[in-house]
Please model this.
Amino acid sequence: MKKYILSTGNISPQQTFGQPFTQAEIITYTGNRMAAAEPDYSKLIDVKLIRRMSRIIKLGVAAAMECLQKANINAPDAIITGTAYGCLQDTEVFLTRLVENKEELLAPTAFIQSTHNTVGAQIALMLKCHAYNNTFVHRGFSFESALLDGCLLLEEQKANTVLIGGIDEITDTSHAILTRLGLYRRGAKGGEGAAFFLLANQPSGSDYARLDGMETLYKPKTVRDVEAAIQSFLAANGIGMHDVDLVITGQNGDAKGDAIYKQLSAVVWNNTPATGFKHLCGEYPTATAFALWLAAEILKEGKAPPAVGQVTVDKPVKRILICNHFQNIHHSFFLLTAC
Amino acid sequence: MDKEQLMADLKKQIITQLNLKDLKPEDIGNDQPLFVEGLGLDSIDALELIVLLQQEYKIKLSNADEGPKVFQSVKTMAEYIIAHQGQNA
Amino acid sequence: MSTKVFVAGVGVISSIGNKVAENLHALEHSKPGMGEMSLLQSVHKTLPVAEVKRSNAELVAATGLPAHTTRTALLSSIAAREAFDDAAIPGFDRLRTGFISANTVGGMDKSEDFFVTFHANAATGRLRDVVNHECGSATEIVADQLGIRNYISTISTACSSSANAIFFGARLIKYGQLDVVIAGGADALAKFTLNGFNSLMILDQEFCKPFDENRKGLNLGEGAGYVVLVSEKVAATLNKPVYCSLSGYCNANDAYHQTASSPDGTGSFLAMKGALEQSGLTAADISYINLHGTGTQNNDIAEGAAIKQLFAPHYPKMSSTKSFTGHTLGGCGGIEAVFSVLSIKHGITYPNLRFHTQMKELPFAPETSFSKNVPVQHVLSNSFGFGGNCSSLIFSTL
Model:
């Protein structure tokens, strides 16, 4: 199902918000944590509303607002978000008080803001948007599920434009716990961000790119299964690997996880330029939202900006394949074509 | 308890508890309506103020319906606190 | 592509029973599930809660899952397995299958204990108590048990979560992506949610009275409910009749306030109206409404106002089964979907327990007794959550 990306909005560990990415310099991070480069929210969101928004809500709302403003759309026909960890800061604030006060004298704001659908709900509230509103919270498929739901709505003709976002945050606590769980012990860096997209059924004439397809693969047993899934994905879209100009892969610095991409590059895209994207945004369950944003940026420009850094492509980039996995459990592939 | 001092303290506490970062205590009038018009606070803020009352002044508002009257303004809050001082939560 | 989606199996565990038959028995004999807190360890011991009458150890033994499994995952496993077994789909392994589950608590029942230790010293706390914190973990634990791999996802939209999961599953079947979807949700009681709702001052200190003029709030509950949705093609291969069809569904947003519903129930109205439009039915076709009916001042008046606007002057039978099960949060859409399906299958409607006085704003009152031999054609099930997230499902007889 081909859908058109009208607009994007992205707050990430790079200077991706409020300016063309082609002009940005890459920020490199030492250590294993990449924090989002946040704008001055008071310029974007009413002060009366900001007071009740924790960081992740501001991240999501600002990115969504930029996406809508760039497309000049006030009210999308659906708002769908994907977040694996949800509103961590609010959860921690409430939990901390619960523990310290032994379940007494608990103020409600943090609890209310801790529900996973708060970002989507806040956007609807600000826009007074009564349309379909959903939030997916499935680990490395959270963003992909949101995207599928949005594309389905467009297919069903229940919507003309859908706003879809992938958001996850890091807090000191979550970083400490994920570090103890071993996520960063082999070289990966934790990241965070909020990336939103406005999708439509029909081309507008000034779209970023066309999303031709998206597939997910859960717990493949071998790399051969992943390879077969990619080949089948390309075939279902009526193309072969030779039709792809650039592959964007989810290598994150973790040698074990990255080995999969090495194997795939040898058998699937051995002749196609490939670049990672997680050196820009870090590793987190909804990082594919950043990848989709990057692909859309590249296709709009026709070439990979210097800021990407990892690849030189000699010819114009007209078609991109994104291949990502999260902990080798959640694999996803996206195919995009220039408009 | 000195009512003027109490009202000055309350203003600071309200600003902190409700994260009203753009306000200074002198921006809140003693008689200014806190809810709907005036400061424009809502039902969640009312719950936060109930916690404030208990935390800082050990006064328990067991019925949320009492809220609108008690929290009408900083002055009514101060008067309620003075009237209920010594009643442990 | 399938134009119709059918319900081939149901499964439920709640404070009124550990399986469908037990829940039905309790509903028929007016036996509510709320009572004194016995499993949850909270200081608020006087608050009535509707606990599933099984300890974690008993649930672990019943499911075969590891001992440290979160209670949400355990409850989900029981109900999903019951639904799966009930549907008994021939050749399940050869079909394209999906599991769409919903929850709001995730593994918080374990994480909140981890946090006590972690908060004192960040190097302490057992990692196995936090590794399944995410909502999606419970889903994968159960999907792996049932052998579902084609499509798995988790939804979390507060109290409308599992209703949203059910109709997302239906749409995946209609679109031709999947043949069978087990959909619904679960939530376990946790100190986090109990204290959260307590801080909002919307918990009743007594057993709740949904839609009563003198209602004082909700009782928190826990449980899980799932339906097995199948395409027309799969329905034709089954060895027993399907229960009913899922004929209508809609999600709309109230966009009024973070937690409170608009006084006229805009979101609720739009969700119910949209579900009717989707099903091609009119309000007069509805035989029974399973109300969201939490028992809070705000929800019941908003939902009531929306029903008045949509259904006047003829109101169908209606009741809130939360008067039995308490408010099971992420599980309520799924649990109440199962009750709605059973209403059609058995021609029954349920009472709204502890109802005495009609709300002065409303020209209708819920059912106060259990009825049999009711010609139930179409059931509307409402689930309205924080963030203005309002969903309605319509189940229809064949």
